[in-house]
TrEMBL record:
Its main location: membrane. One of its GO terms (molecular function) is [heparan sulfate]-glucosamine 3-sulfotransferase activity. It comes from Salvelinus namaycush. Coiled coil: none annotated. It is a single-pass type II membrane protein. Keywords: Disulfide bond, Glycoprotein, Golgi apparatus, Membrane, Signal, Signal-anchor, Transferase, Transmembrane, Transmembrane helix. Disulfide bonds join C303-C315. This is Sulfotransferase. Its EC number is 2.8.2.-.
Amino acid sequence: MPSLVVDNNRRKETGTGSVVGKRTENNARADLVSRLLPRLPPWVDIESDYDEPSVRTSSRDLLNKEIDAYRGVEDRGEMRGEGQRAPEPGAMSSFSNDLGSKKLPQAIIIGVKKGGTRALLEFLRVHPDIRAVGAEPHFFDRNYENGLEWYRELMPKTLEGQITMEKTPSYFVTREAPARISVMSRDTKLIVVVRDPITRAISDYTQTLSKNPDIPTFESLTFKNRTTGLIDTSWSAIQIGIYAKHLDNWLQYFPMDQILFVSGERLISDPAGELGRVQDFLGLKRIITDKHFYFNQTKGFPCLKKAEGSSKPHCLGKTKGRTHPNIHPEVVQRLRDFYRPFNMKFYQMTGHNFGWD
Ligand SMILES: Nc1ncnc2c1ncn2[C@@H]1O[C@H](COP(=O)(O)OS(=O)(=O)O)[C@@H](OP(=O)(O)O)[C@H]1O
């Protein structure tokens, strides 16, 4: 494994001007930056700013309010949680929503942030043998103290033979998550959607930028020292992409054959192919095929011809597929060099060349 040198005592910005007001302004900016763009030592849980709603409360009522409030705004089309649809009298599909029981998930999409996790979950929900919770429960990182019963309550009801799923992309970089999931069940199937770590970092940055337009440039956050080209590995956008290191932690608790790696790039170029692998991994009949997808030219992504529980075409919302800022090719090259040894190690560990180098 390549060594990872992390300088946690990052040099503080010191203003040269003697004007107090300027220093205060600089300090305020530094505060804002550190709040929005956490620089963390390795293995500290990264509380990232996700597009998707997440569960942050121990109160069931509050939780429902939060999800409902969210559903009302941003990602209405992406969130088709159980109980959300108005019952259609006589329709077996809505009738069956009331049957069955809530079970702990047998399969979890554990990462990675900005890898394509929402697309994968929404595509999988088309399968009649998969039921998934729409919001990110964040149980194994933020809400663990609420207990397994709380977690189970969040799940949709399933019938015999159906698989319960959830997705929370921050699990992959949460040190405690593998042990906690293995305590729930050592048989849990784990799915990781991985994407070129450089594009992933830019996507992550783009998301933060869309909410906070005043943050520094990607370039200035990437380097500790632009002249020497030293990368700031304590910036979460960089750190999340060191997949080999995070995977090592999971392998202390789960065998490799219980983890499936989905290519975020192929999920876009060949969604049916990747979905075929996922259905095999979950032991399900290959029901989701290329017949379910069409390429939407305007969106620039594959979309569903018919979403789960609907007869209408469905693309993910506008928070997916944002335009990325142009990053100077020299910076991208430096990042290529930085990630190469970690990527190689990751290819070796997974037995799969993802073609990022
Ligand atoms: N079919 C389809 N439609 C839209 N977007 C798609 C699709 N497949 C993959 N992607 C890529 O998913 C990226 C967002 O990843 P996540 O859903 O994992 O993001 S998050 O961590 O939940 O915020 C998102 O990243 P950005 O393009 O940077 O926005 C997309 O590139």
